[in-house]
């Protein structure tokens, strides 16, 4: 491996070659592309599918594509989907049960080979989100083996952020705008007087061998410096921030805050925030029996903690009010996720803010909770 | 994926509640410990969590109260039928480490406690006082009637109370907490095990803590919606506790705070 490059510079053609090289290796390449007025994640067949020249305008409850003069490919931030769509799909069959004429049951699980994905354009926040779902679905005493096989076969091409959206707060959550660990390749886009190019760094041997395979040139100091300063500058213009406090302690200490009533009066409990969240993993089990009555399938599908049925017990739902359901979501993300999985469940991507139909902003709610706590805390505790 | 178990015996415990004895059709699951639960599947109806109410080699005993679609289908199971079982899941009741043992059960909550009671009376000489306090709505809803005498004979002080007595009822009337005064235990060296409706658990645990039983030594078994048992579906959260993993058996030291917040 000694003579394989660990970093290099590629142009638009290099990006196109990368997609083709990944496809040639039998991978399904998924990345950002413009469709129906949004940057979505879909299968890419070549570099031309990338959203060159498109940016986004984001605000609470608002998403708009805007054209950019510089032709940048990755100057948009997180779109409505995240990689969980592919790694932890919305619906999946888990096993089937068959009953014979004597009433005896047999269970089976089909062994369909997992697709071998290459994700192109994984944002630093989403790179962390994937690591968080890895912990949830494969890091405990029981593992989701379907998730594991898709995940193990997936190759990740990260892209660092140089144009954070108005709803981004990755700096507060410690996830971006520079790429953390976990990528096979990381790209940083540079558009300046010296041209449109991408600094590429390999994080794994497979990433390095891909880099070796596509047209590239040595990473020059100018490109390195431009890439680094673009990412550093991005950190300085985050659209949102979390209050600079221990969020786990804030959540634990404000379970009876009045602010939950305030947010509950606005929240529609539609669950959009949970669907777009890259770490939300909750699912429900469904059993579907065919017309013969002797073949039944177990499916699992995404479910939201905003659904009233989520806490259904024979005596009625545990979380009957919108107040308790929003509180569950926010305190799980920012607080109890640490207790359960050892990290925050929020990566600061801002999707929940953008895709909330009434513009509820988790950072604003956290600030309000911090203010309410401070107002009630005795002076010496502040 | 569930493992098929054959119903060896299905006995009506009380109206609407059956005790099922199961044997593996082929291979058995790993052994269950008292307090752990299984996800039990009835064909086409789905599965739900049930704490094992007995285990003997490969055999599993479940006591199912018909309360909804899945439990009703399980309660209809007859000898010779097959069910699907996954598990063992969750935490179990710890082996009592102190001198006195106090078990408090309300309604179907006696089912998860039964293996613990049986284990404790089988090793009766190891403990000081052993008290089993049982509450039921009506005399007809008392579980394991045929066994209780045996627990008494083995040296456990078994006290029973009902909310609504019937003619001929000679035992206590009222909530199970009333029995605490007649149980014999030294709080400082007692291990307490509590299961029943959530309000009952809260009242009993607070009362025991108030009497000086250390919160770490009061264990409660809690119920939340469960769709997986494996920590992946997210349904069973009670604040910081993912109950299918951190529970269902939790110490009062950990359960006290989350259980004091409404609709958590
Ligand atoms: C750890 C544990 C141990 C238990 N041990 C025992 C025991 O030993 N004995 C016993 O009798 N019981 C036990 N229970 C309770 C038992 O699991 C419930 O009685 C059972 O869930 C009853 O519900 P059901 O599935 O029959 O019916 P339902 O109440 O109909 O529920 C069926 C399932 O479908 C879902 N569901 C039902 N209706 C709806 C709806 N309208 N919308 C959305 N979802 C819905 C629920 O989430 C549930 O999982 C235990 C529970 C737990 C958590
Ligand atoms: S916070 Fe917004 S997106 Fe989330 S459930 Fe409420 S209304 Fe829907
Ligand atoms: S039952 Fe699914 S996470 Fe606990």
UniProtKB/TrEMBL annotation, chain A:
Coiled coil: none annotated. The keyword Metal-binding applies. InterPro entries: 4Fe4S_Fe-S-bd, 4Fe4S_Fe_S_CS. It comes from the Bacteria. Residues 256-288, 337-365 form the 4Fe-4S ferredoxin-type domain. The keyword Ribonucleoprotein does not apply. Pfam families: Fer4_22. Keywords: Iron, Iron-sulfur, Metal-binding. This is 4Fe-4S dicluster domain-containing protein. It comes from Actinacidiphila acidipaludis.
UniProtKB/TrEMBL annotation, chain B:
It comes from the Bacteria. Pfam families: DHODB_Fe-S_bind, NAD_binding_1. InterPro entries: Cyt_c3_hydrogenase_gsu (IPR012165), Dihydroorotate_DH_Fe-S-bd (IPR019480), FAD-bd_FR_type (IPR017927), FNR_nucleotide-bd (IPR039261), OxRdtase_FAD/NAD-bd (IPR001433), PyrK_electron_transfer (IPR050353), Riboflavin_synthase-like_b-brl (IPR017938). Residues 1-95 form the FAD-binding FR-type domain. SUPFAM superfamilies: Ferredoxin reductase-like, C-terminal NADP-linked domain, Riboflavin synthase domain-like. PANTHER family: DIHYDROOROTATE DEHYDROGENASE B (NAD(+)), ELECTRON TRANSFER SUBUNIT, DIHYDROOROTATE DEHYDROGENASE B (NAD(+)), ELECTRON TRANSFER SUBUNIT-RELATED. This is FAD/NAD(P)-binding protein. The lineage of its organism: Bacteria, Bacillati, Actinomycetota, Actinomycetes, Kitasatosporales.
């Amino acid at each position: 491996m000694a003579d394989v490059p660990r970093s290099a510079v590629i142009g638009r053609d290099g990006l196109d070659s990368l997609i083709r090289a990944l496809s040639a290796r039998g991978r399904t390449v998924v990345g950002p592309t413009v469709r129906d007025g949004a940057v979505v994640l879909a299968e890419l067949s070549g570099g031309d599918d990338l959203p060159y020249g498109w940016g986004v305008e984001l605000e609470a409850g608002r998403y708009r594509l805007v054209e950019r003069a510089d032709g940048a490919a990755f100057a948009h931030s997180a779109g409505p989907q995240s990689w969980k769509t592919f790694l932890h799909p919305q619906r999946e069959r888990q096993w089937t049960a068959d009953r014979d004429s004597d009433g005896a049951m047999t269970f089976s699980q089909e062994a369909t080979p997992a697709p071998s994905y290459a994700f192109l354009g994984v944002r630093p926040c989403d790179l962390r989100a994937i690591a968080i779902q890895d912990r949830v679905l494969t890091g405990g005493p029981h593992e989701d083996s379907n998730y594991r096989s898709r995940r193990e076969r997936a190759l990740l091409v990260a892209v660092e952020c140089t144009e954070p959206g108005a709803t981004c707060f990755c700096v507060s959550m410690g996830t971006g705008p520079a790429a953390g660990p976990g990528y096979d390749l990381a790209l940083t886009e540079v558009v300046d007087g010296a041209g449109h190019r991408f600094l590429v760094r390999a994080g794994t041997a497979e990433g390095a061998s891909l880099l070796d395979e596509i047209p590239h040139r040595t990473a020059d100091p100018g490109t390195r410096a431009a890439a680094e300063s673009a990412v550093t500058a991005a950190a300085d213009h985050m659209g949102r921030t979390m209050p600079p406090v221990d969020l786990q302690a804030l959540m634990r200490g404000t379970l009876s805050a009045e602010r939950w009533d305030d947010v509950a009066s606005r929240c529609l409990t539609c669950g959009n925030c949970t669907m777009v969240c890259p770490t939300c993993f909750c699912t429900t089990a469904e059993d579907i029996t065919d017309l013969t009555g002797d073949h039944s399938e177990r499916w699992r599908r995404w479910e939201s903690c905003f659904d009233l049925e989520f806490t259904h017990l024979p005596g009625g739902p545990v979380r009957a009010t919108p107040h308790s359901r929003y509180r569950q979501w926010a305190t799980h993300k920012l607080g109890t996720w640490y207790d359960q999985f050892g990290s925050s469940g929020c990566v600061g991507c801002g999707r929940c803010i953008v895709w909330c139909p009434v513009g509820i902003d988790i950072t604003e709610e956290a600030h309000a909770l911090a203010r309410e706590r401070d107002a009630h805390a005795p002076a010496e505790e502040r | 994926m569930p493992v098929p178990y054959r119903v060896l015996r299905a006995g009506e415990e009380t109206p609407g509640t059956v005790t099922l004895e199961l044997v593996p059709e082929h291979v058995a699951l790993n052994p269950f410990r008292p307090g752990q639960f299984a996800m039990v599947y009835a064909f086409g109806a789905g599965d739900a969590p049930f704490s094992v109410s007995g285990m003997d080699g490969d055999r599993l005993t479940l006591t199912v109260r018909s309360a909804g679609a899945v439990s009703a289908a399980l309660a209809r199971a007859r000898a010779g039928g097959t069910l699907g079982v996954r598990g063992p899941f969750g935490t179990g009741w710890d082996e009592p480490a102190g001198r006195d043992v106090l078990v408090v059960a309300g309604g179907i909550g006696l089912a998860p406690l039964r293996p613990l009671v049986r284990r404790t009376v089988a090793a009766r000489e190891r403990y000081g006082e052993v008290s089993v306090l049982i509450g039921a709505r009506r005399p007809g809803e008392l579980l394991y009637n045929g066994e209780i005498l045996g627990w008494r004979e083995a040296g456990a002080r078994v006290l029973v109370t009902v909310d609504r007595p019937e003619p001929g009822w000679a035992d206590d009337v009222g909530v199970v907490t009333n029995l605490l005064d007649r149980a014999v235990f030294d709080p400082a060296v007692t291990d307490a095990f509590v299961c029943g409706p959530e309000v009952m658990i809260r009242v009993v645990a607070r009362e025991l803590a108030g009497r000086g039983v250390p919160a770490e030594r009061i264990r409660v078994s809690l119920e939340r919606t469960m769709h997986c048992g494996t920590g992946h579906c997210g349904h069973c959260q009670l604040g910081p506790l993912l109950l299918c993993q951190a529970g269902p058996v939790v110490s009062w030291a950990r359960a006290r705070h989350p259980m004091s917040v409404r609709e958590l």
